[in-house]
Automatic annotation (TrEMBL):
One of its GO terms (molecular function) is exonuclease activity. It is found in: Nucleus. Gene3D superfamilies: 3.30.70.330, Ribonuclease H-like superfamily/Ribonuclease H. The keyword Nucleus applies. This is RNA exonuclease 5. GO terms for biological process: negative regulation of gene expression. InterPro entries: Nucleotide-bd_a/b_plait_sf, RBD_domain_sf, REX1-like_exo, REXO1/3/4-like, Ribonucl_H, RNaseH-like_sf, RNaseH_sf, RRM_dom. Residues 555-632 form the RRM domain.
Length: 717
């Protein structure tokens, strides 16, 4: 039974959030993952198509991408050792099956083609290397596209709540959402030097129409050492009769700024620190009109080149804060109205002193051209890091300009190095190797994978009986299909009575059969449904309980014993909407020879709704519905997929017949999972974390991998 994954994961309950959503995707490929990484890292500078299988939205966007590759692990490993993957199963709320790749993942990533539109190809290479284009891209538009986010504010020493040196600062009521029509206010301050450092002596605020709404002299609390009259224009005589203090102008600014008001200034962090003011919506013109290597244009030069206006004239003493605030406001309004591409095209020569030329032919047909991702990342001014314990060199990694590669001796060293440089790279790839104690030959690895698959299959196995002697497989199938699809029915011949082995497609079917069909009576026979008895199944109840708490399924239920007449979306919606809002209803695809499927998965918006629906007697038509917590994650087709080799279970325990010591494997997986948790904890806010279990491709059978995706929303996690 093939069921398409449709999982909508809310990353935050706040208004500003990032949303990940599965959209009818069976199995991802490495190419799909590469497309997501390309989109997340090159979106500002290249016209990259958004992946159709994943929707990423949010005001702040993704700042960096971190990829962790856990060599040698598959989807089978994850669900066989589910208990030991505490970080992976709890921190990552989006999970997809991944087709195994026969090549090197890092090489596939850096050498994957980036498809660019003709519009992008027509842009001069010199234009694309401009720091403004590298920061904002060619399509950014609207006021909200140029606001500084929290990371940028911290990086450029803006005062932020809880920041160093911001004790006692006043926060404005900037809690309103900023739109492209939000009002702009130009701000400029003049400071003098006191015995306590720089302190405010004058402040000016102009509104979006250019009218000066605040122009006040301010007397510092501490004795003035230097008035900086040459720049500030302030003299001791000017401040003699001034009684206005810092708190007074703070109150005036708080009254003048609406909740969605945006402050504009040039090197605005200095003005806000002088005002002891924290404001979340800011645009800094020194960071709009960017220079290379973090340098900044002077406001006087920008006004002269862009606005064709002279400010800060040498004919008068000191700067006029109203004039400077108005110039910053007009520079921001001009930038927003034109957009980054037109700004750079119009002023590449007179501002950045670079000769503009178009490298592409105007007659270029409307087609796309491939570009290697590694090269595109480098030319966009982005940096990439690859940390690995492997020593194999690949051609794609020999160029240190494309990606910095560092060899580490252990997985622990990989984590330590990454934590030191976590904020230095746009893309970081960490490859964790298999433990030396678990090195296996191909034959041993194949045996281990087969035995793990058998363990997962046996979770869906029941031994049922005794049956009347004339019972047929069709009768058994008809009785138990009310709990879910039965994959196989096999009579056992070495028992006193007639018994049968049933294999369900889903773990939920076996669970419901044990709960609802034990002690069923047929012709004076008391039918009992039993689990297999060996080490793996002794703690099956605990394993089932863990899967009920899985972040992918805790808000889902499994419904079966549906009739063909009432198995419609509207009927299910009408029956279950009483428990809470429903996100979607998943009905597995039809099987060969089966016109109707008798079960469905229902996903609620809240886990409380799923808990309420379980245990309530429900009926559709003349059928009593069987309902339980969903145990099968949306990306899985079945717990009992056919394996290349299926061995009979004997007296020897399944655990001991696995291709390696299970205790060693558990310890290895716990260590890897712990390293994933440490790396995730070191990531900054809005960083996209991708964890890949690559899967294994062999001559006889392919074992699927897994891809985990999470955008970190809290620095403290």
């Amino acid at each position: 039974m093939k069921r398409k994954a449709q999982e909508s994961v809310m990353m935050s309950l706040k208004k500003k959030r990032v949303r990940l959503e599965n959209i009818s995707q069976d199995v991802l490929t490495v190419r799909d993952v590469c497309g997501l990484i390309q989109y997340s890292t090159l979106r500002p500078t290249h016209n990259i198509m958004k992946p159709s299988w994943l929707s990423v939205s949010g005001d702040d966007g993704v700042s960096r991408v971190n990829v962790m590759i856990l060599d040698g692990l598959t989807q089978t490993h994850f669900y066989r050792y589910f208990t030991h993957f505490k970080h992976l199963r709890n921190k990552y709320t989006a999970r997809w099956s991944l087709a195994p790749s026969s090549g090197d993942l890092m090489s596939d990533l850096l050498n994957s083609d980036v498809t660019q539109s003709v519009e992008h190809l027509k842009i001069s290479a010199r234009l694309m290397l401009n720091p403004v284009i590298r920061r904002f891209g060619v399509k950014a538009s609207g006021l909200s596209s140029f606001l500084l986010n929290e990371q940028d504010m911290i990086k450029h020493n803006f005062p932020v709540k809880g920041g160093r040196g911001c004790e006692g600062f006043v926060c404005t009521q900037s809690d309103g959402p900023v739109t492209d029509s939000s009002p702009l206010f130009g701000l400029d301050c003049e400071m003098c030097c006191t015995c306590a450092g720089l302190e405010l002596t004058r402040v000016a605020l102009v509104d979006s129409t250019g009218q000066c709404v605040l122009n006040e002299l301010v007397k510092p609390h501490n004795p003035i050492i230097d008035y900086h009259t040459r720049f500030s224009g302030i003299t001791s005589l000017m401040l003699n009769s001034v009684n206005t203090r810092l708190t007074d102008v703070q109150c005036q600014i708080l009254q003048l700024l609406p909740p969605d008001g945006v402050l504009v200034g040039h090197s605005l962090e200095n003005d806000l620190r002088a005002l002891h003011l924290i404001h979340h919506h800011v645009i800094d013109t020194s960071l709009l009109y960017r220079k290379e290597f973090g340098q900044r244009f002077k406001l006087k030069h920008l006004a002269e080149v862009i606005l064709k206006r002279e400010i800060q004239s040498e004919d008068r003493t000191g700067h006029d804060p109203c004039e400077d605030a108005l110039a910053a406001l007009h520079l921001a309004q001009y930038f927003i109205s034109k957009g980054p591409r037109e700004i750079v095209q119009d002023h590449l020569e007179d501002l950045w002193e670079v000769e503009f030329c178009c490298d592409s032919d105007s007659n270029t047909p409307h087609s796309s051209s491939p570009l290697a991702f590694g090269h595109a990342l480098y030319t966009s001014g982005k940096s990439a890091l690859y940390l690995s314990t492997t020593t194999d060199d690949t051609h794609s990694l020999t160029n240190q300009h494309v990606c910095r590669r560092q060899h580490c001796t252990t997985n622990r060293e990989v984590v330590c190095v990454f934590r030191r440089v976590v904020q230095s790279y746009t893309l970081s790839v960490l490859q964790f190797s298999h433990s030396e104690d678990l090195q296996q030959t191909p034959a041993q690895r194949q045996q281990h994978l087969q035995q793990m698959s058998v363990c997962l299959r046996e979770m869906c196995v029941l031994y049922v009986g005794p049956w009347p002697s004339d019972t047929t497989e069709k009768q058994i199938h008809k009785l138990f299909r009310r709990c879910g699809r039965v994959r196989t029915v096999r009579f056992l011949h070495n028992t006193h009575g007639v018994h049968a082995e049933l294999v369900f497609d889903h773990l939920e079917g076996a669970q419901l059969a044990v709960n609802h069909l034990t002690e069923h009576h047929i012709s004076d026979c008391h039918i009992k449904a039993r689990r297999p008895v060996h080490e793996w199944c002794l703690d099956l109840d605990e394993r089932v309980s863990e899967r009920q708490r899985d972040v992918l399924t805790h808000h889902m239920i499994y419904v079966c014993n549906l009739s063909s007449k009432h198995h419609h979306h509207d009927d299910l919606l009408h029956t279950f909407k009483q428990f809470g809002p429903i996100q979607h209803i998943i009905r597995p695809a039809k099987h060969a020879g089966k016109r109707h499927c008798r079960h469905a998965f229902i996903t609620f918006e809240r886990s409380e709704s799923a808990h309420a629906a379980v245990g309530v007697a429900l009926q559709m038509g003349n059928r009593k519905l069987l309902v339980c917590h969903a145990l099968t994650p949306p990306h899985m087709i079945s717990w009992t997929q056919a394996q290349a080799v299926v061995t009979e279970t004997g007296q020897e325990s399944t655990e001991r017949r696995e291709g390696c010591d299970p205790l060693q494997m558990e310890r290895h997986i716990q260590k890897l999972d712990g390293k994933v948790g440490k790396v995730f904890g070191a990531l900054e806010k809005n960083c996209m974390s991708i964890v890949i279990l690559p899967g294994i491709r062999s001559a006889s059978v392919d074992y699927l991998g897994l891809c985990f995706i999470q955008i970190k929303r809290d620095d403290t996690i």
